[in-house]
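From the pipeline queue, job 12 of 40. The input is one protein chain; the requested action is below.

Action: predict structure.
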Amino acid sequence: MFKTMRVIAIAGSLLAMANLASAASIQGTVRGPNGKAWSGAAVKLEAKSTKSAPQMTKTDASGKYVFNGIANGVYSVTVMDGKQVKAFMENVKAASPKNLDFDVKAAQAGTAKKAKHMVWVPADTGSHIGGRWVEVDDGTTQSNDPSLVRGSSQSVHANYTNTNTSSGGGGH
């Protein structure tokens, strides 16, 4: 009977050590736009392979965060200020321990990147070459492309059709 209990105790301790060996951690430091430790930044950890709820933590006074006792796997780590994402890293493999530091630059911290979008420019009159796409900045009122016509799709189409019909282009 004591032999059986000893075997169970040894098996239980081996199982506990195996679980501790498979547990991992992700930790690091977050520096703000000023280059100093960012105290109170929210850090979110999401497992990529499972649909478990994300884990959240906040950085301490020295900008450090830690997620202990997580399962081995692939994660995404996100640094947030309120609901605004400041930095993120995807496909982070959890290790024992995995060190992952974030250095939030001023550009990431609030400087909006100018958005661009594509605009279809129809073919020139008399050309057998089709139209083309032109990249323009959002909010731009001027363009260096003389064939770029601004307006609603109906007014541009009507203008294009009238121009091509009157010049012998045939329209569409």
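Job complete. The chain is about 20% helix and 35% strand.
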